[in-house]
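Reopening: structure tokens for the fe (ii) ion complex, inputs below.
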Amino acid sequence: MLCLGIESTAHTFGVGVADDKGSILANEKDTYKPEKGWGIVPMEARRHHEEVSGAVLEKALESAGKELKEMDVIAFSQGPGLPPCLYAGLNFSKELSEKTGMPLMGVNHCVAHIEVGRLTTKLEDPVTLYVSGANTQTIAFVSGKYRIFGETQDIGIGNALDKFGREAKLEFPYGPKIEVFAKKGKWIDLPYTVKGMDLSFSGIISEAARKLEQKNTMEDICFSLQETTFAMLTEVVERALAHTGKSEALLTGGVAANKRLQEMLDIMCNERGGKFAVVPNEYSGDNGAMIAWTGVLAHKSGQKPLNLKDAQVLPRWRTDQTEISWL
Ligand code: ATP
Ligand code: FE2
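Re-run output (same inputs, fresh job):
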């Protein structure tokens, strides 16, 4: 069985192909880049996705060495995400489904990050830290659902780092630039904000911007920003491990690329005698392959396809509201 997966929740338009043995045959993407100094403009991102969708699909089919008519199922990222971006994915997928008669599955974007993580790292039952631009969640599978143990109360860690990067007039992409500066920095105090299992980042970002104006070096601010926010993330993951009794931690999302965050989680897991793994770069940011693989899981386990007439996007679809029929 072959599943075509469509991702379009934010910056990335992605198309992937996966089979029911867990092989990923294609993973192509094209990413919208906001104008200099700006964050995402949802309507522009939608236009980008609509413009590139045909070409990304062609490329994916070519890499997979398959034709569209060989696909059995189509899955798309139904939410959560920005409504204009989600609509681009829904309309594109619906059109393909109508044209070919393939059943259409709606996939939860966050669940897809976890499933492609389990597939590529071979972790079985991890506590997942999902850290991207918009999302920051600690998730674990308990009593039939992926439960959110903690999350950000304001902005995602990626957007927080980007916000600081913009204010500090660094170059886009900001996360990797901050990581480079941080290598040569030393510690200065920034607010550490863990509230139970939840986190908050906007106060730290304002304080970091203020401290930069007070003539601290970029290196010191970037170092301390990473040390503080990553320690907060590590603390809640450790507490989720202790609470659930699980022994594996999985790191995914665009911010998973950060080596210092990887190192801190790795040390924490080692000290507990647990396992730690990072989703490979190609599959940790938003991508179509994760949607294709989760589509395979949902379809194989008997989930009903969407009715094309009333298929909708779900911009606020929560991880813990998603039916997990394959576990
Ligand atoms: P989502 O819809 O899941 O929120 P997204 O559109 O934000 O996704 P991702 O590719 O998952 O996209 O993540 C992008 C984020 O990752 C950006 O905020 C970027 O700054 C951050 N990032 C990328 N590389 C690094 C790095 N090395 N260190 C820290 N942050 C990074
Ligand atoms: Fe994502």
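The two ends are 19 Å apart (CA to CA). The chain has two domains: 2-112+286-321, 114-283. Marking as resolved unless the reporter disagrees.
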